[in-house]
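Objective 1.3, modelling of assemblies. Example input:
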Amino acid sequence: METATPISIIEPRVALSPWRLFWQRLKRRKIAMTGGIILIFLYAVSLFAGFISPYRYDHLDTNYSFRPPQWPRFQGIHLVVPRTESGTGTFVYQTISTDTRPLHFFIRGDEYKLFGFIPCSIHLFGTGDENYPVYLFGADQFGRDVFSRILYGSQISLSIGVVGILLSFAFGMIIGGISGYFAGRTDTVIMRFCELIMSVPALYLIISLRNAFPPDMSSSKIYAMIVIILSFIGWASMARVIRGMTLSLREQQFVLAARAMGQSHLRVICRHILPNTFSYVIVAATLSVPYYILGEVVLSFLGVGIQEPQASWGNMLSAAEDVNYLQHYPWLLAPSAAIFVTVLAFNFLGDGLRDAADTKS
Amino acid sequence: MIPLLLGVSLLTFALMAMSPGNYFSALKQNPQISPETIARLQAQFHLDKPWYVQYFYWLENVCRGNFGYSMAYKIPATSLILSRLWNTFTISFVAMVIAWAIAIPLGIFAAVKRDSWIDRGSSLIAFVGLSISEIVLALLALWFAAVTGWFPIGGAASPLHDLMSPLQQFCDYGYHLILPALVLAASDVAGIMRQMRSNLLDTLHAEYITAARARGLGEGWVIYKHALRNAVNPLLTIFGYSLAGLLSGAFIVENIMAWPGLGRLTMEAFFAKDSYLVVDCVVMATALLVVGNFVADLLLAWSDPRIRLE
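Predicted structure (tokens):
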């Protein structure tokens, strides 16, 4: 549709599998590949968040509340970090450029668990001196490093999108498949329920779902709760589309053949019908991940999601909700850049996947 | 429509029942309030009964146009909700008008001058616009308002609002409305613009357009009289989606920019555990969406005679 490709002379070649064809078409789309590479980078960083970040997410130093961002600078061939001073009771910092400490790599610092289970205390960089902190993106009101907290927050935000999608799409595909396959009354009941869910504006539904859970829970329970809430809303639209596709697929000969062979209903749905919807599902999933990430951000931002001191992009932004903070310490908005880059990368990749999956063009 | 609203209210009521504690749980900690008083108040609000009984009490009242009594605000919920609903309606409506006024001409332009720098530029902006969430935009707007001082920071009225003449009050309201409405509109522009562009491109490829050109009609006539009319119909169908997005977007914008709408009321009621008010808000927001979709259907029937015939 977008560009008319000239008809080339058909060369005899080995038939490629659909996945190979898909991959070849995808590789030609630069924007999609850029999005994919950015995402791989972001996920790698979040996997090694504890190692890359100079501090732990809850490392606080109230001597450095609202310290502005400061990058290490070169002094000769060494990277150095200058000391900063503030008058008592104010958050105006002065850099003392003569008093510096060198920046060390692979330095010991706060304890953390690599990949969530390997105890470790080596950090990629740092000064190893409390009086010479490296705050790349500045510090928040408790003197916590915004950069480190963004990295720790990415572990939550980036994983919640994928886990949420897996759950809600698996659910949506099976329910949609059942609904379309059996049709009739089952179909009517399921579809009415989907319409019910889809007719409530998403955030209002999210809040009333949040209402069903106790306000204070452990952080892992809150994580699970957010995934459940977002999936509960997400599966409906998926189920509707899959149901529509199943309705037409079930009349196809290969499905009739499978049924004539006496295969069970569940097997026909899972082995014969649903695989035919995969190309749609993958595209839709990639384009939906941003909504899950933003869902977590909104919940945490409103104070009903991930709780302090745990870092999440949403609850970091809620510090910026205070206009006084926002006006004087704009680096508190740094997590929004992380959100933006992530969402943009998913949109790039999803758009390219959609074009690549569209075999008609 | 009515069964849908019944279903939504039943669902929210059921969810509410699963939540531990109610508005009075916090009062129980207060030694100055006797347990008897709390028990009496709970009985008065039917909170001592199972949730489905509560639901029927609530439903009975709603049928009489009474949305109950807000426990946290100590005023009847009906007036509270209607004023908040009006605010949410105005902000969504103004945002929608702004968004469509920007997006439609831009989309037409991008399609007509396809592959020009304007097309590329606007599609890049659309991509960026689709990726910026309302939270970020609203915070940036708040920051902008704080730094420049050109716009009020939050709220819908100045402190002196009650002393103003009706005209001044109207201007004051508009002055407070404009920034949140712009933020809300900005998040909607990208989607509509892309849709408009691809619709118009599709119709420009149609054979009747080639035929019209072959007859020697002017390019302007072909685009505005033949192509555009047929490209508008799919847009009316996305009106519904756009409205759903606006209502959710308004929820965020209201909460960040302190616009006293339904979304902010929902959060306030949520934190106060004012459960009936939360249900009322959710049902009202759904009703707004359903009515909006109904209007979209009417518009579609008005613009497309084929649908009227069916």
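Chain B touches chain A through 47 residues (CB under 8 Å).
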